[in-house]
Every structure is written in structure tokens, then in C-alpha cells.
Fold each of these.
Amino acid sequence: MAKNDKINRQILQELTRDGRISNLELAERVGLSPSACLRRVQELERAGVITGYRAVLDRQKLGVGFATYIGVGLGEHTKEAQEAFERAMQAAPEVVECHNITGTIEYLLRVECADLPSYKKFHTDILGTSPYVTAITTYVVMGSPKDLRA
């Protein structure tokens, strides 16, 4: 188990900000020698605290200019219904996040599409054909002043 101390928290903060930072720069920022810093990063990886590194993409430059959060209610609360819905969401490339939540609905999705017509197609062809979906509430993202997703 990796230590949850101030230096490890600083390392994680720096790596979250820039996963490609060199070990030398990271060590300087957190006040460690490069070898001690590398050992800590490797321990955080071994302990599963750091599970991977990702590229952060500019969705606009990829032609994905329309983002929504969608609340989805299911008509049945069975394991079969949940698993079928989750399989459908796994297969849909527009769905970038799918969360099973508590409350009046069962799922919260983040869906990213090129534009409104492509969202309508997803809404009709994917959500609209699911036999278990009984409620859909769409929230269009107009801006994201803070977004820490990597």
C-alpha cells in the first residue's frame, strides 16, 4: 500500500496536471531527488493508485462539438435490464461515460457527438430502441469552466 502523505499527494497532483512530465522536473517540483521520486511513482503504480496515463484530446478539433449529460430511467429494475442497457451503452461510441446512480433515475450518461443532428440520431436509434428505457432527460453542455476529466 502506497503512503498517503503530503509528497505523494503532490506527486499525484503534478501527474494529474501533466502525465508526461519528466521525472527530473517532477522531482524538482515536489522537492525530492530524481531516484526517490521515481521510486515513489513506481510504488504508486504498483499499489494501483496510478492506474494509467492518458492523452487529453481537443474534442472540437476532432469534430465533436456537442456534449450532453443524459438522465436515463429504466422501466424494470432487474439485473437483466441493467446488464442489457449497460451492454448497449458500451457498444455506443457516443457514450463516453455511463454511471449507475441512485435517485429517481438509474443512469447518468455523458454523450459526445458532432452536432445536434448526430445527437438526435443517437437519441432515436440507440436510446429510443432500448426496450428498458422509459425516461430520458437531456442536459446540453453549453460550456465547461472547470473540467478535470483526463
Amino acid sequence: MTTLSHPTTPLVAILRGLNPDEAVDVAKVLYNAGFRALEVPLNRPGALEAIASIVALNLPETLVGGGTMLNVGHVDAVFEAGGRLLVSPNCVPAVIRRAADLGMYCAPGVATPSEAFAALDAGAHALKIFPAESVGHGGIKALKSVLPAGTPVWPVGGVSPETMADWVKAGATGFGIGGALYTPGVTLEQLKERAESFVSTWRALAV
């Protein structure tokens, strides 16, 4: 099975606690703002239903999938819901390998060189640096010095439009964005403003 390509805008919207009834409207706002990767963490009720609702929109060039995917059962459930993106907080080679074998785009969480290389060996396409605050700018610089050239590195945790430039200088090639973008109860207008701020900042940095 052919693996989906790297997202054209490497900003992953982390939609923790997304209500399935709101999933379509939230996804449309994010897509129109420029997001092309949408992650619904599985550790909240309704995640699989929300993923299926977003997948049904058939948004062009957009990766949709699950976060906090901790075991092979999570991989299979997200795949059955139509998700083609794996995001996890940790590095479990068997989980990564299963998702990669299904043709999913894999962005597992790593915090050390050992985890990073284990993830890549298992089939990871991008590395989620988590928790980014603990790894820090120096940690990402050191990690980038030993990773294969071109490996996507996405800090996650505490990222804001104001902090993106320093992460990019350290070697970040994308981001996962959670509470600074989406929290349950946010209005669609607030979401639009936040999403556009992240995307415009990224585009200015990526030129």
C-alpha cells in the first residue's frame, strides 16, 4: 500500500476533546485557514467518530488521523475509521510498524536519539519531539546533527506563533499544535483567528 505523502503544510492540529457533532465545522475552519494535518487524540470520548466525520469530508491533500495511539488496536481502529495519520506521545516500534504497513503516515513521539532511531527503523516518516519544552532548542539541534538529512522534526508542547521562529532556528521543520489552537468550547471565529495566525507565521518562516 502506498504511503501518503508529507503534509504540504507541516502543522498538525491536535484536536483533543473534539465533539463528533462539531468535527465537520472545526475541520472546515482549519482547512480553510491552511492546515493539512488533523489529529484527534484517542484518550477522549468520541474520537473515532470525530475522525470518521472529518474523513468523510474528503478534504484535498489533508492527513486525518489519531493521536495518543498507544497500541496496535488503536492503529487498527483509526484505520477502520478512515484515518491515515498516526501520532503518539511515545515510541513503540510495533505500533509504528503496524501503521506503516497499513500505509499510514507515522509521526511517533520521541525525546532521545535512541527513540528517534528506533522510530525511524520501524517506519516513522516524521518525529514528534515531545515534550518539546523538556528537550529544548539545544536538544533539537543536537538531535538534528545525527539524524538522517531531511528527517521531519516537529516539536509539540507549548508552541505558539511567538515561539515558532526560535524552534525553526533550532531545526524544527513543522509543529504539532494543541491547546494554543483548539480547546473544547472555542468558538469557530476564535479558532479561525488562531489557525490563521499559526499558518501565516509558518509561511513567513518557511520562505
Amino acid sequence: MAELSYTNEDGDSVKTSQFLKNRGSCCKTSCLHCPYNFTLTKHGLEFKELDLSTMPKAQRIIDDNSPKDDNSVSASLLASAFGSAKKKDTISKFQLQNYRLVELKGETCGVVKVGSVGVSALYLKEHFKDQGLNKDIVSSYFSH
């Protein structure tokens, strides 16, 4: 069963998108995890450049979205039969300009990797994965 609320870093109780979906309709009060796109439409997304102080935060979000290492025999057999899984994205201090923190209402909700044509990858924090954000939507808010 999906969790209905969690405690954020400030100690506040935050309702999840599952809680808000269970209510059945949008209350139009700009809930952080609004699954009805009201908050996203009203506030939009902000993109913050990374620096050495924010790099670890961004890397944790990327790591949380990456496949876990599996050294089992079955994983080895599957990798040899179908190719290995995608490698984990790792930020270096020389690539900071290729990443941005994504914020909704001042709260970090994810990280994007950017290339010459815009957003090439999206990594969302766990509590933001179930409210309809995806690479195409996030890309529509991104501008160089």
C-alpha cells in the first residue's frame, strides 16, 4: 500500500499524491504533490545550476533512481544474454554545468541532465514519481 504522508526534512507532515488522489478531486490550494497538475500549472518548475555544495544532493537523487548492483548468478546470466543494464550516472565537478536541480514551490523534486537539445535524463525524488511528472513535461518548462 502506498504511503499517504511523510515527514520532510523540516519536520513537516506532507500529503503524498496517493493521499490527494484518494480524495478524488483537486482542492486548488497548491499542494506540493498535486496529482491534478494544479500546482505545476500555477507555480511551474525552477531549474538551479549545480555547484560543489549541491553536487552531493543531486548525486543522491540520481543514485536513488539507478539500478542497484546485483552480483547474483542470475543477473550475470541475464546481462550476458541481453546486455548489461544501464550504467549509473555519476556527476563529476567537471560536469556540473550538465545538470540542474528541479524545484517545485522551492522544494527540490529531482535532477535533470541537460545536453545540447535540452533535457536528456530526468531523476525524480521518490515522493514526486507518482504525480505525473515525466521527462517531456519537465522539458517543456526547461529553457537554456
